[in-house]
Amino acid sequence: MDLKKVQAPLERQLALLGYELVHLESVREGKDDMLRLYIDHLDAETSHRKVTLDDCTAAHEGLLLWMDVEFPDLREHLGVEVSSPGMERPLVKADHFRRFAGRLCRVQTAAPINGQKRFKGWIGPVADGGVTLEEDGVLKVVPIEAIQKARLAPFDEEKTPRPKHLTGRFTELPDADGVETSAIEEEEA
To answer: Which domains occur in the chain, in start order?
Structure first.
Protein backbone atom coordinates (compact mmCIF):
# COMPACT_ATOMS: atom_id res chain seq x y z
CA MET A 1 0.00 0.00 0.00
CA ASP A 2 1.37 3.37 -1.01
CA LEU A 3 0.59 5.56 2.01
CA LYS A 4 1.66 8.72 0.15
CA LYS A 5 -1.23 8.18 -2.27
CA VAL A 6 -3.86 8.25 0.49
CA GLN A 7 -2.23 10.62 3.00
CA ALA A 8 -3.18 13.98 1.46
CA PRO A 9 -6.82 13.02 0.80
CA LEU A 10 -7.10 11.61 4.35
CA GLU A 11 -5.65 14.82 5.77
CA ARG A 12 -8.23 16.90 3.88
CA GLN A 13 -11.14 14.71 4.94
CA LEU A 14 -10.05 14.65 8.59
CA ALA A 15 -9.70 18.44 8.53
CA LEU A 16 -13.35 18.66 7.44
CA LEU A 17 -14.18 16.58 10.52
CA GLY A 18 -12.10 18.87 12.78
CA TYR A 19 -9.00 16.70 13.13
CA GLU A 20 -5.36 16.73 12.10
CA LEU A 21 -3.70 13.60 10.77
CA VAL A 22 -0.62 13.35 12.99
CA HIS A 23 0.72 10.09 11.57
CA LEU A 24 -0.36 7.36 9.18
CA GLU A 25 1.04 3.84 9.14
CA SER A 26 0.32 0.44 7.70
CA VAL A 27 0.76 -2.38 10.23
CA ARG A 28 0.18 -6.11 10.36
CA GLU A 29 -1.68 -7.43 13.39
CA GLY A 30 -1.89 -11.19 13.30
CA LYS A 31 -3.28 -12.04 9.89
CA ASP A 32 -4.85 -8.63 9.39
CA ASP A 33 -3.35 -5.62 7.64
CA MET A 34 -4.37 -2.33 9.26
CA LEU A 35 -4.25 1.29 8.23
CA ARG A 36 -3.63 3.14 11.50
CA LEU A 37 -4.30 6.85 11.75
CA TYR A 38 -3.15 8.94 14.71
CA ILE A 39 -5.26 12.07 15.03
CA ASP A 40 -5.36 15.26 17.06
CA HIS A 41 -7.73 18.20 17.19
CA LEU A 42 -7.06 20.88 14.57
CA ASP A 43 -6.91 23.46 17.36
CA ALA A 44 -4.75 21.30 19.66
CA GLU A 45 -2.04 23.96 20.06
CA THR A 46 -4.49 26.46 21.50
CA SER A 47 -7.19 24.33 23.09
CA HIS A 48 -5.02 21.58 24.67
CA ARG A 49 -7.97 19.18 24.37
CA LYS A 50 -7.08 15.52 24.43
CA VAL A 51 -8.32 13.06 21.84
CA THR A 52 -10.98 10.88 23.43
CA LEU A 53 -12.54 7.58 22.43
CA ASP A 54 -15.55 9.59 21.19
CA ASP A 55 -13.23 11.61 18.92
CA CYS A 56 -11.69 8.41 17.51
CA THR A 57 -15.14 6.95 16.91
CA ALA A 58 -16.40 10.13 15.23
CA ALA A 59 -13.34 10.33 12.96
CA HIS A 60 -13.57 6.61 12.13
CA GLU A 61 -17.24 6.80 11.22
CA GLY A 62 -16.68 10.03 9.27
CA LEU A 63 -13.95 8.39 7.23
CA LEU A 64 -15.47 5.01 6.41
CA LEU A 65 -18.23 6.12 4.01
CA TRP A 66 -15.90 8.62 2.37
CA MET A 67 -13.20 5.94 1.96
CA ASP A 68 -15.69 3.55 0.35
CA VAL A 69 -16.28 6.18 -2.35
CA GLU A 70 -12.74 7.58 -2.76
CA PHE A 71 -10.76 4.34 -2.26
CA PRO A 72 -13.26 1.51 -2.82
CA ASP A 73 -10.67 -1.30 -2.84
CA LEU A 74 -8.82 -0.10 0.23
CA ARG A 75 -11.15 -1.45 2.89
CA GLU A 76 -11.32 -4.84 1.17
CA HIS A 77 -7.64 -5.31 1.97
CA LEU A 78 -7.08 -3.20 5.08
CA GLY A 79 -8.86 -2.56 8.33
CA VAL A 80 -8.97 1.06 9.50
CA GLU A 81 -8.02 2.05 13.03
CA VAL A 82 -8.13 5.57 14.44
CA SER A 83 -6.15 6.38 17.58
CA SER A 84 -4.97 9.28 19.70
CA PRO A 85 -1.27 10.09 19.40
CA GLY A 86 -0.80 9.24 23.09
CA MET A 87 1.85 10.50 25.47
CA GLU A 88 4.69 9.10 23.36
CA ARG A 89 3.23 10.78 20.32
CA PRO A 90 4.86 10.54 16.91
CA LEU A 91 6.70 13.61 15.63
CA VAL A 92 6.48 13.68 11.86
CA LYS A 93 6.38 17.27 10.64
CA ALA A 94 8.58 20.28 11.39
CA ASP A 95 5.56 21.85 13.11
CA HIS A 96 5.38 18.89 15.50
CA PHE A 97 8.97 19.51 16.60
CA ARG A 98 8.28 23.26 16.94
CA ARG A 99 5.16 22.60 18.99
CA PHE A 100 7.04 20.33 21.40
CA ALA A 101 10.26 22.34 21.61
CA GLY A 102 11.81 21.89 25.02
CA ARG A 103 10.59 18.31 25.34
CA LEU A 104 12.66 15.13 25.22
CA CYS A 105 12.31 12.89 22.19
CA ARG A 106 13.75 9.76 20.61
CA VAL A 107 14.69 9.91 16.95
CA GLN A 108 15.80 7.20 14.55
CA THR A 109 17.18 8.05 11.13
CA ALA A 110 17.18 5.89 8.01
CA ALA A 111 20.93 6.35 7.51
CA PRO A 112 23.66 7.26 9.99
CA ILE A 113 24.42 10.92 10.63
CA ASN A 114 28.02 11.26 11.82
CA GLY A 115 27.93 7.54 12.61
CA GLN A 116 24.73 7.72 14.63
CA LYS A 117 21.20 6.53 13.78
CA ARG A 118 19.49 6.76 17.19
CA PHE A 119 19.21 9.98 19.16
CA LYS A 120 17.58 10.90 22.47
CA GLY A 121 17.66 14.61 23.06
CA TRP A 122 15.86 17.76 24.05
CA ILE A 123 14.12 19.45 21.13
CA GLY A 124 15.55 22.83 20.21
CA PRO A 125 15.05 25.15 17.26
CA VAL A 126 13.77 23.89 13.92
CA ALA A 127 15.25 25.64 10.89
CA ASP A 128 16.48 24.95 7.36
CA GLY A 129 14.80 21.54 7.25
CA GLY A 130 16.50 20.27 10.41
CA VAL A 131 15.69 19.94 14.08
CA THR A 132 18.28 20.74 16.73
CA LEU A 133 18.52 18.18 19.52
CA GLU A 134 20.63 18.51 22.63
CA GLU A 135 21.91 15.05 23.51
CA ASP A 136 24.26 14.67 26.47
CA GLY A 137 25.21 18.34 26.33
CA VAL A 138 25.98 18.28 22.59
CA LEU A 139 23.84 20.10 20.02
CA LYS A 140 23.08 17.98 16.97
CA VAL A 141 21.09 18.94 13.89
CA VAL A 142 19.07 16.13 12.36
CA PRO A 143 17.52 16.75 8.91
CA ILE A 144 13.78 16.13 9.17
CA GLU A 145 13.79 14.29 5.82
CA ALA A 146 16.34 11.81 7.27
CA ILE A 147 14.09 10.91 10.21
CA GLN A 148 12.56 7.48 9.93
CA LYS A 149 10.80 7.55 13.31
CA ALA A 150 10.50 10.12 16.10
CA ARG A 151 8.45 10.14 19.30
CA LEU A 152 8.22 12.17 22.48
CA ALA A 153 9.88 10.49 25.46
CA PRO A 154 7.89 11.89 28.42
CA PHE A 155 8.72 9.01 30.77
CA ASP A 156 12.46 9.74 30.50
CA GLU A 157 12.27 13.52 31.06
CA GLU A 158 12.68 13.52 34.84
CA LYS A 159 15.67 11.15 34.83
CA THR A 160 17.48 12.75 31.87
CA PRO A 161 19.87 15.60 32.69
CA ARG A 162 18.46 18.98 31.72
CA PRO A 163 20.00 20.56 28.62
CA LYS A 164 23.10 22.74 29.03
CA HIS A 165 23.03 24.79 25.83
CA LEU A 166 19.30 25.39 25.63
CA THR A 167 19.03 26.40 29.31
CA GLY A 168 17.10 29.54 30.09
CA ARG A 169 14.53 28.93 27.39
CA PHE A 170 12.78 26.13 29.27
CA THR A 171 9.96 26.27 31.75
CA GLU A 172 9.23 23.52 34.24
CA LEU A 173 8.30 20.15 32.83
CA PRO A 174 4.55 19.75 32.38
CA ASP A 175 2.61 17.42 34.64
CA ALA A 176 0.83 14.38 33.22
CA ASP A 177 -2.25 16.48 32.36
CA GLY A 178 -0.19 18.87 30.23
CA VAL A 179 2.11 16.35 28.65
CA GLU A 180 1.24 17.32 25.10
CA THR A 181 2.06 21.01 25.50
CA SER A 182 5.38 22.60 24.75
CA ALA A 183 7.72 23.20 27.65
CA ILE A 184 9.50 26.05 25.91
CA GLU A 185 8.69 29.65 26.63
CA GLU A 186 7.41 31.85 23.85
CA GLU A 187 10.12 34.31 22.94
CA GLU A 188 8.98 37.84 22.47
CA ALA A 189 9.68 39.26 19.06
So the answer is: 3-83 (3.30.300.70), 94-178 (2.30.30.180)
